[in-house]
Amino acid sequence: MSIRILYFLLFTGIFFTSCVPTKDLIYLQKKGDSEVNSITPIGNKPYRLLTNDILSITVKAIDPKLVEIFNTDFGVQTATSDQLLYLRGYSVDDHGNIRMPILGEVNVLGFTIEEVRQKIEMLLLKDHFKPEAGIYVTVKLSGFKYTVNGEVVNTGTKTLYQDRVNIMEAIANSGDITVTGDRKDVKVIRQFSQGSETFSIDLTNEKAVQSPAFYLQPNDYIYVKPLKQKTWGTGKTGIESLGTIITILSLATTTFLLLKK
Predict the structure, then answer these.
(1) d(CA 128, CA 40)
(2) How confident is the model over 201-218, as a mean pLDDT?
(3) Rounded to 5 degrees, what are φ and ψ at 61?
């Protein structure tokens, strides 16, 4: 086999195996004969509180002075809202309780936000207020927190101030997946009171919207693993691969000429 044929085979092999195909970079593609309804029902279950969650609880009444003790007056502070919620919000302790004025320890572990609201309202009306007081309770999580790691532009723990977040929003908020990130096998690790569960979601397939991991839950951990192209180090695009090939050929040629002498 001549040196030219060897170079050609080496050039062709590296070029076609190192580049990341366009189809691996496009989100929510229609694959095969699969059909996804234009309106997909959302089947995600409501989030149930875990230890270390922080709640923002507001109690209102016709006479605001009656419920001042329950509410945190943030006022004008130099700290950020995240810090204030951590310092002054109602944290779920290791026993699943929050500690409130007058009510004392209130167990909320495994409750939904709506169930906590109903429980607090019931406790207040049962022993402390009459219906005529017009008690109105609002309960929210102190932001929608999740963590993204792996092949994304900006890794780390993020907080969004909205009730519902899908995985596409979470990744976009992290600067998107890099070219060498595997969009076909994104892992979502979800915490429950009894343990954790790992989901795998293919973001290049339009059926991803039907996955239980498409809509995130607070404290989800998202991991994007690298493609083989990154491990090989041959380049993500044709231009990068060409540069790698030229370098290899130059080295091979130099070695051949030195050995020939």
Answers:
(1) 45
(2) 93
(3) -150, 170
